[in-house]
Amino acid sequence: MSVKQNNLKSWYKSGAPGVWMSGGAVAIAIIMTLGLLAVIATRGLGHFWPADIIEADYQVPGQEARVILGEVVQAEEVPRARLAAAGLPVAEAGGEFMTRELLKVGNRELFGADFTWVVGEWLSNTRTPANVTVLERREWGNFYGNLVNVKESGQVVAEGDAAWPALQERLDRVDGLHAQLVRLEKRDIGRINHGLERIRLEGRKLQLQGKLDAVAQASMDARRDALNEEYKVLEERMVALTQQINRDSVTLTASDGRQTEIALGKIVRAYRPNAMSIVDKLGFYGMKLWEFVSDEPREANTEGGIFPAIFGTVLMVMLMAVIVTPFGVIAAVYLREYAHQGALTRVIRIAVNNLAGVPSIVYGVFGLGFFVYVLGGSIDRLFFPESAPAPTFGTPGLMWASLTLAILTLPVVIVATEEGLARIPRAVREGSLALGATKAETLWKVVIPMASPAMMTGLILAVARAAGEVAPLMLVGVVKLAPTLPLNGNYPYLHLDQKIMHLGFHIYDVGFQSPNVEAARPLVYATALLLVIVIALLNLTAVYIRNHLREKYKALDH
Which of 143, 351, 490, 544, CA to CA, is 20 to 30 A from 282? Predict the structure, then answer.
């Protein structure tokens, strides 16, 4: 055998091929992951850029030419035969492919849809006029057109070149009034409604207990009257604000020549993308990104922001972590330190490992049946009989969603903690016992602190899985729209019985249940990217804590 063959044989025996294959597989996986994230980021974050609005003449063969106005969202080449099969009057002569463009034309009340497909070869005289105005509305999507005038109480106050600055000035005023109205509705009116409901439940409880006398009734009536009087004052303010908000209006001409008058109270902002500089567009882009992460959703979750979903996801994961960590650690400590290491213990470990492979929807069904109906129904009968027949905890909510995720991720924490406990040298335990410490003191002050990095590893894996779950949460507390946060200024401040929004379910709802598919598609990518970022931040926080604990107790390993 030659030296070259011997070297090759030795190279194979050394395990180097396996190392290179493993490294290559890891590199490919990282590249594919980064590529996927790049695609998601490009398609999601590009949605917030103020693209130029084109105006063009659109001539379909055999039909009258018309002017079309909108934003190019997508362009693709399709076979000429495919367009002909769709019923378009495509001539047989010409190339094999034609260009098809998806335009966001807005003006839903005029055209019936926000998006339309056009054939690129039938567009002519394409231009980007600087005076094209885009109105981002609270309902009915965007409106594209040319500004005609601005009205106050039905009277024209500005038109022509003076209409644009007048529109911006009055929109700033309306934004301030709308913010006041939202604060009244959410904070003050919400507080009053919460107080009235508590008084009603208090009276019902006293009635069930047979303690509702004249004194208690008079006290409740006085508090109720005070809240009702406060509500009347706030209602008058709300009516006045609404009238001021709807005082002004703006008139625009659509691409087909029709004029439409829109109340400024229905408009979020007005902008002219064709007249914006790069600096202006960057500022607008940053504003839209901030709105996306800090505002509430609008238009069936296809417009606005997703802050309630971010808040609900983070709060639910944090509650899950608080619940699953002590239970997982206690179970692992018992199995490793106290339980007799026999057949029963091995069966329990096998069962725990198998639980990690159970489909998540099964946990959702279990959470709905046991936590919501059995446990929640029992809590309502024992502690909240005054709320009947309306359930308090006998309905899906934040607490049951957190508990269901805790049960789902419990096997991961148990296994990771057990492995950490198994790595603690026996000499450390014996040394502590020899110095007079009890077994409980040894566990609490020596063994568990040294195993805490492994516990944090289990928690990291639990958070990574729980934050992305959707199927079980659909059954135990997550809903399409819940703009009221479960943590607010009304007693008891943290409302564990309240339903929440979740980023994962938001992606499912927008992507598969939205009535406006084309408008929802970019938000699916943007929300998916945000979910990845939230999970990464939660994991990085846990990794930082784990590394800190590892450094703190490193000296005890030697």
Answer: 143
Give the CA distances from residue 359 to residues 354, 366, 399, in Å, rounded to whole numbers and listed in that order: 11, 11, 21
Are 382 and 466 in a shared domain?
A: yes
Q: Where does 356-445 have alpha helices with state H? A: 360-366, 377-383, 398-422, 426-434, 439-442
Residue type, 16: A
Q: Do 262 and 408 reside in the same domain of the chain?
A: no
Residue carrying the six token digits 């009890």:
438
Residues 365 and 450 in one domain: yes
Instruction: Answer whether residue 14 is part of any domain.
Output: no
CA–CA separation, 501 vs 92, rounded Å? 52
Residues 168 and 237 in one domain: yes
DSSP state of 358: S
What is d(CA 517, CA 73) in angstroms, rounded to the nearest whole number?
A: 13
The pLDDT tens digits of the residues spanning 439-487 come to: 888 888 888 888 888 888 888 888 888 888 888 999 998 998 887 889 8
Q: What share of the chain is helix, strand, coil (3-state, %, to 5)?
A: 65, 15, 20
Is the pLDDT assigned to residue 411 strictly greater than 80? yes
R_g (Cα) of the chain, nearest Å = 31
Question: Are residues 269 and 330 part of one domain?
Answer: no
Domain assignment present for 140: no
Q: Is 98 helix (H, G, I), strand (E, B) or coil?
A: strand
Cα separation of 416 and 287, whole Å?
Answer: 43
d(CA 338, CA 165): 76
Give the span between the Cα atoms of 502 and 485, in whole angstroms.
12
Distances from the Cα of 452 to the Cαs of 320, 325, 544, in angstroms? 18, 11, 13
Contact 180, 239 (CB under 8 A): no
Same domain, 409 and 349: yes
User: Where does residue 98 rank: exposed (0-12), middle (13-18), buried (19+ CB within 10 A)?
Assistant: buried
Domain range for residue 68?
54-128
Answer yes or no: is 47 within a domain. Answer: no
Sign of CA dihedral 145, 150, 156, 162: negative
pLDDT tens-digit profile of 140-157?
889 999 999 999 988 999
Contacts of 250 (CB under 8 A, 6+ apart): 135, 147, 149, 150, 151, 163, 167, 261, 262, 264, 267, 270
For residue 339, the 8-state DSSP code is S
How far apart, in whole angstroms, are the C-alpha atoms of residue 520 and residue 190? Answer: 31
Number of folded domains that form the chain? 3
Record the pTM. Answer: 0.89
Token pair 């009947």 in the structure block, residue: 388
Same domain? 321 vs 248? no
Residue 449, in any domain of the structure:
yes
